[in-house]
Write a structure and sequence with these properties.
9 strands, four-stranded mixed β-sheet, 35% helix, alpha+beta, three-stranded antiparallel β-sheet, single chain
């Protein structure tokens, strides 16, 4: 995924009879201003639209300058396939393929690999829009788990929430209730801070059932296109050109 930006300064060059060195300097100056505004808008959109996946997306960004008149900004799958899936969208896929190659997988490279996946739940009063939360807890569940000094067992779960549920994409029926094992964990970043989060933990391995870890896919965010459409390149070029000429001619 790339967003090429080309700058045509031929009319300005002819009008002011610029030398080659002046043309090169002007091109670099104008291009830097366009790139600066584009990246600023792109980063703003990334911050507004991505949360847990932001790091993966950011590390896939690349910037290349074929010459003094053009730049290529894009996302490369060499660093993260996830970034392109977020940008362009993707259909459903089996997450097990990624889990077994994770650096955190145990017995990696064997047929006995396994990985523990944490799912964080937001409290009932929280605005659980961030990607760090799998979902928001019902108030009845929150009241129970706050009183427990152990992971929540099936018997602790209010009867109306004991259903197993299923994967919305494959309709695979889960073997455990989504609240089973729910517990509060200390997530304080300093000794003075007191902060907790609510988590369940699930094990995935080579032996996990087919369709049990299928992701629904991603809706295309098109953050690069949105950033490009949000900036006025012609206006940026005109202002940058005037600034350069006023300073140097």
């Amino acid at each position: 995924m790339i967003a090429p930006i080309y700058i045509d300064l031929s009319e300005t060059i002819d009008e002011f009879s610029l030398s080659k060195n002046e043309v090169d300097s002007l091109s670099k100056y104008v291009l830097s201003r366009v790139v600066e505004d584009f990246k600023s808008e792109w980063e703003r959109l990334i911050g507004e639209n991505l949360h847990q996946t932001k790091g993966e997306y950011m590390k896939a960004i690349f910037e290349e300058y074929p010459d003094d008149h053009s730049v290529i900004l894009g996302l490369t799958p060499r660093e993260s396939r996830l970034a392109l899936m977020i940008e362009d969208g993707s259909s459903s896929f089996d997450m097990k393929e990624g889990f077994k190659s994770s650096d955190k997988a145990k017995n990696k490279g064997t047929n006995r690999w396994y990985l523990t996946i944490p799912f964080r739940m937001a409290t009932s009063e929280a605005v659980a829009e961030s990607d760090i939360f799998s979902q928001k807890m019902p108030k009845q569940i929150e009241k129970v788990v706050k009183k427990l000094d152990k992971p929540m067992g099936l018997a602790d779960i209010p009867k109306e929430f004991r259903g197993l549920g299923s994967n919305p994409t494959t309709k695979y029926e889960h073997k455990f209730n989504i609240y089973e094992g729910l517990q509060r964990k200390d997530i304080s970043s300093t000794n003075k801070e007191k902060r907790g989060g609510y988590f369940t933990f699930r094990r995935v391995s080579e032996n996990s059932d087919a369709d049990s870890w299928v992701h629904k896919g991603f809706e295309a965010k098109k953050l690069m296109d949105r950033a490009m459409n949000a900036i006025d390149i012609g206006n940026i070029v005109d202002k940058a050109t005037d600034e350069f000429l006023n300073k140097n001619l």
